[in-house]
Design a protein that fits this description.
mainly alpha; 2 domains
Length: 378
């Protein structure tokens, strides 16, 4: 029953134009349940909590009675610090931190350090690869949120070297198939790319030239893997579409006859409701815990690619190229020194990424223009 209630709350917080005051009264009830007995339902509870924060951001940030930000911190810090909870039990916690950092950019500076502290503490005693990735992505999200603030906190805590060493090590680990052992999903790679790219904006006194070179190369490597993964996914989608079309061509006539015999109304509103519930089911599925057992497949890690996120509108290739161009303008010598440290391989990667970024920029502009022309004038 509790699962069904959460599904209804998820539906209402996702599809309502605004989240009503009455709906917000369910927040403390869910928090109490999580603290008391509902840890097994954490993935289900994550869905409406995400909706509250992403679709009711203003209320989440400004309301003090109750204080939703404090309430969220109390819950997340308690769960992530609980040594009795398995790694799989707490996976929704770093996802929630990501929701906050992405949706409240520039508005939750006071929470960056507490969330980084609890993230690093849990990271140090985490065994499960997938949770390690989620925790590391909290740091990547924090860098994208505010790179200067985040780096200064990591340095103040004396953990900057430890964290970046682990991050680079995780990005270099590959499976027998040649695929990355960590950060398997497109979303994982994108978050890491945005975090790493944000570091390029730092001045030399915060990011020395040797560190700059390492970050630059790591970002290039990851962008290329991200690009390849997207291309592979598009191929698979095209193949599936072709298969579906083949099926439609053979089944269409039978379906039409069946529909007529059954008296089915093609405009039946139930179909629209069904589609909405399917979307919601996909959203709920995205937050389920993952297994690390499958060494050769990334399927387990692709469930939440369909989720909406503030970074959906950010193209990591364009973001990277624009950041490099800004460095070239603001500090030509630093840019020149960086380029001179690149061997032929990385020069080729950089040129390829730059070309792809311009293609992406043109495609995005074209899509915007088409949408604008398709929208009737008011």
């Amino acid at each position: 029953v509790f699962e069904e209630v959460l599904e209804i709350v998820s539906y209402m917080t996702f599809y309502s134009p605004t989240i009503s005051t009455d709906m917000w009264t369910l927040w403390p009830l869910m928090m109490e349940a999580l603290a008391d007995w509902a840890i097994d339902f954490f993935p289900n509870i994550l869905v409406p909590l995400d909706n509250y924060i992403s679709r009711g951001t203003g209320h989440f940030l400004t309301c003090k009675e109750p204080d939703y930000q404090q309430s969220l911190w109390n819950m997340i810090s308690s769960i992530m610090a609980d040594k009795n909870l398995e790694d799989g039990d707490i996976e929704p916690a770093p996802k929630l931190i990501e929701v906050v950092l992405q949706n409240c950019k520039g508005q939750v500076d006071q929470w960056v350090e507490p969330y980084l502290r609890i993230t690093v503490e849990r990271l140090r005693r985490t065994d499960k690869s997938y949770l390690k990735c989620l925790l590391m992505q909290v740091i990547a999200n924090a860098l994208y949120y505010n790179v200067g603030l985040t780096l200064s906190i990591l340095q103040k805590l004396g953990i900057a070297t430890e964290i970046f060493s682990l991050w680079f090590q995780m990005m270099q680990q590959v499976k027998k198939s040649g695929l990355l052992a960590n950060f398997k999903r497109e979303h994982d790679k994108k978050v890491c790319c945005l975090g790493l790219t944000s570091l390029l904006a730092l001045p030399a006194d915060q990011l020395p030239e040797d560190a700059l070179g390492r970050v630059f190369k790591a970002t290039l490597d990851l962008l290329v893997k991200y690009k390849d993964q997207i291309a592979e996914a598009e191929k698979e989608d095209e193949a599936e579409d072709d298969d579906e079309m083949d099926g439609f061509q053979t089944d269409d006539e039978d379906d039409e006859v069946d529909a007529e015999e059954m008296g089915v109304d093609a405009e039946d509103g139930d179909e629209a409701d069904s589609i909405r519930f399917q979307k919601l089911a996909a959203q709920a599925k995205a937050f389920r815990p993952h297994d690390d057992d499958d060494d050769d497949s990334d399927d387990d890690y692709s469930d939440d690619e369909e989720l909406q996120s503030p970074i959906d509108e950010v193209d990591p290739f364009i973001f990277f190229v624009d950041m490099v161009k800004a460095m070239q303008v603001s500090n030509p010598m630093r840019f020149q020194n960086l380029m001179q440290t690149l061997d032929f391989h990385y020069q080729a990667l950089a040129n390829g990424v730059a070309q792809h970024a311009e293609q992406r920029r043109a495609a995005i502009e074209k899509e915007k223009a088409e949408k604008a022309s398709a929208t009737p004038a008011s």
